[in-house]
């Protein structure tokens, strides 16, 4: 296939304005010996990876939407893991930079639903039988993000049991302290009373909200000048959970408009399951403290 911008069959005609600009700018045009854009970005691998299974036109949208989401999730995990390390090492300015980026990525994924929502129920019905039992429920990067944000649940490890390398990755996130666990440990290091049950615990257990932890955050929020960076951390956690809630909401709404109340290919009730996930609260005391202020 000839790209119209690289069609040189017309070379004898007088050069266009853009051709003149490219020549005058001395842009490099020969990449036979040098690394090019596509080489650096491994575009051959990435752009080879869209393999529709159905004859449906819209399957390309479905694949690209999920692949781009997984790429953004890859970056989120990269940032989130480093941010948790920064909080653990008392490097708050570095953590803030990364957490702000994670929230912006999440916001971007919220807007990405607009593209997928252009797919109608009949369009998706043409693809769905080809998906078999695969489902976003089995996204290992998504599960690592949930675990890093503290939504721990051993059952979510099972879909990865057949792949030891992947299981290892998800298990590491499952066993590690979450972003919120590290935030509470930091409050304790700053001399704010946090119960030992929340600074040393079995990190694989689901987080339990506690009145004393709300009191710890209230100490920060009632004295922002004294604890400016912890106050900023609290607000960055709020931004992140806010964006995550929007993502979950757009997911369930998009699913309802596309498959209604059908069961999910992953085996759950579908919309009923996703609605239950809307009730998950990642950083509970960060929200409840607001009633006391
Ligand atoms: C037409 C589009 C979509 C439909 C109909 C759909 C449907 C569903 C359903 C029914 C579930 C529940 C699990 C199951 O039983 O299958 C689910 C879970 C999930 N989906 Fe989607 N989904 C869509 C698009 C997406 C996109 C674009 C992503 C982004 C990567 C995504 C990521 C996930 C994740 C991560 C879960 C697990 C959620 C959790 O466990 O809390 N889905 N989806
Ligand atoms: N759970 C979806 C299927 C689905 O959405 C899906 C299937 C394969 C790869 C990604 C998917 N997206 C999110 O769940 C359904 O029940 O139609």
UniProtKB/TrEMBL annotation:
Q: Which UniProt keywords apply?
A: Dioxygenase, Heme, Iron, Metal-binding, Oxidoreductase, Tryptophan catabolism
Q: How is the cofactor bound?
A: Binds 1 heme group per subunit.
GO biological processes: L-tryptophan catabolic process to acetyl-CoA; L-tryptophan catabolic process to kynurenine
Cross-referenced Pfam families: Trp_dioxygenase (PF03301)
Q: Where are the transmembrane segments?
A: none
What does the UniProt function comment say about this protein? Heme-dependent dioxygenase that catalyzes the oxidative cleavage of the L-tryptophan (L-Trp) pyrrole ring and converts L-tryptophan to N-formyl-L-kynurenine. Catalyzes the oxidative cleavage of the indole moiety.
Say which family it is in.
Belongs to the tryptophan 2,3-dioxygenase family.
Known partners and oligomeric status: Homotetramer.
Report what the protein is called.
Tryptophan 2,3-dioxygenase
Q: Which organism is it from?
A: Hydrogenophaga crassostreae
